[in-house]
Every structure is written in C-alpha cells, then in structure tokens.
Task: structure prediction
Amino acid sequence: MQDIIKILLAGEGGQGIQSIAEILAEAANHSQKEALYIPNFGVEQRGGISMAYLQITDSGKKIGAPKFELADFLIALSSRALSRTRHHAGKDTVYIYDNSLIEPAQVNDEIIGIQYFESTPPCPISREEVKVGEEDLGDNRSCNFYHRNEVSEKKIPRNVKHILSFPANDIAKNELTPRVFNIMILGVVAAAINIVPLAAIEQALENKLAAKYKKNGSLRELNNKALIRGYELMSTLFKGETNG
Result:
C-alpha cells in the first residue's frame, strides 16, 4: 500500500461532499490512522462547486500540505465537477463518477442521509419544500430533482487508465430514497479506498447523526442500508475491472 492515499471528492453544494469527507476522516482517525481533510469551495457566493481534499495513511508517514495536485481517487458527482477536477487526474488516478448526474440542489451541504426525510428533495428552481408523509418517501411524483445530463467525453481525462461509473442517484431514487444519496457515496468511497473499516465508518455515521437517530431510530437502518448498498456496488465494479 502506498504511504498516503489522496482522495478528492467534488460535486454541487447540497450533495453532502463535506460531510462525506468529514465522516471518512473521523473513521480513519478512530481506526488508528492519520487523516487530514480540508474543504474547498468555488468562488461563486452561491451555487459553486464543493470540493473536499482528504488524505489518509496508516504507514506512519506524516501528511504534509492539506491540498495536492494529483489524486489517487477522484470522485465527481456532477457535470461541473467533472470539468473542475480534470487537472487533478493523472494516469494512475482511479476516476469515479456518477453517470446519473443531477442538477445543483437547493439543499444544505451539511445535510447527511435522511434526517430531514419528512420533506421531498427541493426542486433545483424552487425555494420551497413539499411536505409529504413517511410513506411517500422516494415517490417518483416529487419534483424533477434527478434531471439527467449527458456526460461529454471531453470532460473525462483521456490519460486516466481506471474509470468507473455508477448510477448512484438512480439507485437511491428507485431502491431507497433520494435523501440517502450521499450515504451511498460514502459507501462507494469506502470500498474504493479500502483502508478504513466499514465498522468504523458506521460508528462515525452514528456519532454524526446521534440526535436524529434518537428522534427516529428507523433512520439508522435506512442509512446503514444505503451505506452497504454503495459499498457493495463499488466492490462489484472493482471486481469487474480486475477480472477484465
């Protein structure tokens, strides 16, 4: 294993990029590993790209600068993120992106999982949330939060050897509920880097959402299900690439 694993996550504000990195860093630290995470936001006051630089090591080597030029793992969750992160991808980068890309969401970037599950995901052009009952979670009648964009081949760095794509948004919408999209991504990243134990991530998630879980214990089961779904999805993709 290399000395330091460098991970870059990028997406729209509202996709929980910073929370994903924060939970991974906490889980790594609690697993006797060293982790360093620093957020980075676009120059736009609103609607900018959210990026998280995360480095993890268990080699004993000290992590230096918080940012880096080339990522070992690059996870892009929107069309704009694909464009903004091209220069961070080298030939050995594992380049991972969601091929069911969504439009920017009007959701707080600190939202993680479905602690606000009583409301549907807000429409990209809406300032209001539509109240629904618990039984209506993930209902396809909600607003078009999952607007699909075509991914231009020009946005994918041509020098990258390992490119993996997955439909996390579609899976979250059709199998679970849209609110657990970022929990799925947490599982995807955990499986990709394969250095932080899944149990440690579950505990970090528990710590993050303790207050919400206390109010509604069913959220724990749903978030953990999404975490495992993302983990297994990426494990299968990696296995397929290895066999191929």
In short: The chain is about 35% helix and 20% strand. The beta strands are 5-12, 34-41, 49-57, 71-76, 89-98, 162-166. The helical segments are 17-30, 79-84, 168-175, 181-193, 198-208, 210-215, 218-243.
